[in-house]
Automatic annotation (TrEMBL):
Domain N-acetyltransferase: 22-136
Upper lineage: Bacteria, Bacillati, Actinomycetota, Actinomycetes, Kitasatosporales
InterPro entries tied to this protein: Acyl_CoA_acyltransferase (IPR016181), GNAT_dom (IPR000182)
Listed GO MF terms: acyltransferase activity, transferring groups other than amino-acyl groups
Organism whose genome encodes this protein: Streptomyces yokosukanensis
N-terminal signal peptide: none
Gene3D superfamilies reported in the protein's UniProt record: 3.40.630.30
Pfam family, one: Acetyltransf_3
Protein name: N-acetyltransferase domain-containing protein
Amino acid sequence: MSWLPDDFVHPVHVPVPDTAVHLRPIREADTAIDYPAVMGSRERLWEIFGPAWGWPKETMTYEEDRIDLLRHEKEVAAHQSFNYALLDEEETAILGCVYIDPPERIGSDAEISWWVVDDLVGGEVERALDALVPQWIDADWPFRQPRYVGRDITWQDWLALPRAS
């Protein structure tokens, strides 16, 4: 059994209210704007995602990022997991990402996490994204027990949970 209904259609463009940014599924073609976003915020991102995902490595190359984005693009197409890029209106800069994944740990039917680039931490865009994500998941996704990792549970507590079978 899939983690999503067979007839589920994932959103392809999600405006972030009261901002000039939007979410859309990330693509391999985004590498040129993803790599500087990730590496420019790498130390903070490692503090968040490093213990769980081993990402982003200090030595991550452009090619490794391209391969990672290609994997994400294929996973979205197959409805295995979803990586949404947070983009400016012209799609000339990635400003963060939202991840929607099947559960790795018991107690939820999806695991959602997100980040913004260092320059946006604590600002209006981050606050707008923080408000949007749970509302968007509730309105447009078929989950009954989504878990917001790093939000409603710490990454450390999440890592301590038993693995989902």
